[in-house]
Amino acid sequence: MSKLSFSHSWVLITGASSGLGAEFAKQLGHRGANLILSARSVDKLGRLASDLAKVNGIETRVVVADLATPEGVDQLTADVDRLGVPLLHVINNAGFGSTGAFVTSNAETERRMLRLNAEAIVAVTRHFLPRLIARAEGGFIQVASTAGFQPTPFMATYGATKAFVLSFTLALAEELRGTGVRALGLCPGPVPTGFQQAAGIPASGLLKLSRLEAPEVVDTALGAYEDGRTLVVPGALNSVQTTAVKFLPRALVSRAARLAMRGLGRS
Length: 267
Fold this sequence. Notes:
Layout: E1 10-14, H1 19-30, E2 34-39, H2 42-56, E3 60-64, H3 70-83, E4 87-92, H4 107-135, E5 139-143, H5 156-175, E6 182-186, H6 195-199, H7 205-210, H8 214-226, E7 231-232, H9 236-244, H10 250-263
Parallel strand pairs: 1-2, 1-4, 2-3, 4-5, 5-6, 6-7
């Protein structure tokens, strides 16, 4: 693939109001990218857009949408189209998780998670992909998780959605070979972004050992994307763990994950 520069390129970031999404915005802004920031919080997006424009002199646009609903996805794609900017890169970052036994989970929360973490990524990617192929450049960073490498008891829906994102992205990357369009699956482990608190995940020794700060995760992701890679697992310990599960029986991996989740208090 040709050498990649984000300078003056338009990038759409979903889930941009906090966490990895906000960090992607900051680092891409420093690299000279123009940004379309999307999330549900207009106030947070507005402040982030204003701060980035002041510091870096880049162009920013804000699109408010709830991607956990089909209407929200349609609103996002229509609003981005109406901006009339030459979108070149998409970072599908929006997502959330929950913990606990599936039988006691909130049914609507699980449905929203499925729509946001999986369905929205497919819809957004499908909408913008044809124009990138026509230009033979640009691409997608799809945020999955190390949870996508094995079944995740007590986070069953979340882990399944991230497994979907991982499989979808790797298949898409192979379809895109030779087109000039990139597709990268980003699989971070624990990142202190507020996700854990929202999902009800307590801190633990293992999480503290394997977690990385958001700036390191995003810097690693952008480097992998620039290199044309299709998968990146930031952090040495996370990489070892995700590699090891490939060589173990699935039943054993599932049982070990169950015990680990219980040890973390997620059951």
